[in-house]
Amino acid sequence: MTAGGRFYLVTNVENGLVRQWAELPGVSKIPSYWHVLTLPNKSSTCTSKGPWILAARGRELYRIDVGVAELIDPSPAIKSMTHTSIHLIAISSNQQLVALYLDNGVLWIGDTAFQKCHCEIFLPDRIDAFNSGSKDSVDSTFQNPIKILWSTVCAVVLQWTNFVVLVGPHEDIYEFFYPEDVYLEQEDLSGRPGWMHFVRLILCIEEKLDPK
């Protein structure tokens, strides 16, 4: 993506063929988030069988193809449409599922066609750490996470500075605190038999390690 919000895709490295995607409508053409999906677009207006782009701008979602940038209407699938912006997005490893974290505190998980909702959770009511009132753990005022990732295709992981929440397939929630800041990275081991995407947790250790 260029600084002006234009998308270009090199479909063949050998011959250097470059294709330009459609631009977002309106004055501001730069999305707050974008992700390339290689599976065919299921939209009725975007008929390309090649890659397409899922982009977010404010509270709007778009499917971007070579010829058209289609505004997605997620209202049939997303019930909590009180948000003003989409804060974070994560795509599952099989590109069939998408997780949205909205600025109203809702975590929505559904299909990338935005026709089916698998779960819709208002996290401030479900995360115990933000309801305990304990100042030793985290601020009692709910804060937006800084990162969201998929672990395989069954769970979504959200990260605060030193606080990690795992949301399971049955809306079960697990909370983990760490004494230091942590960093999450999603690793793709799909090329190895029996492995899929998983999330690697990296602890930030300030003290030097003893060589002994």
UniProtKB/TrEMBL annotation:
A Pfam family annotated for this UniProt entry: Vps16_N
Domain (Vps16 N-terminal) ranges: 1-187
InterPro entries, A to Z: VPS16, Vps16_N
GO molecular function, one term: actin binding
GO biological process: endosomal transport; intracellular protein transport; vacuole fusion, non-autophagic
A cellular component annotation (GO) from this entry: endosome
Source superkingdom: Eukaryota
Protein name in UniProt: Vps16 N-terminal domain-containing protein
Organism annotation: Protopolystoma xenopodis
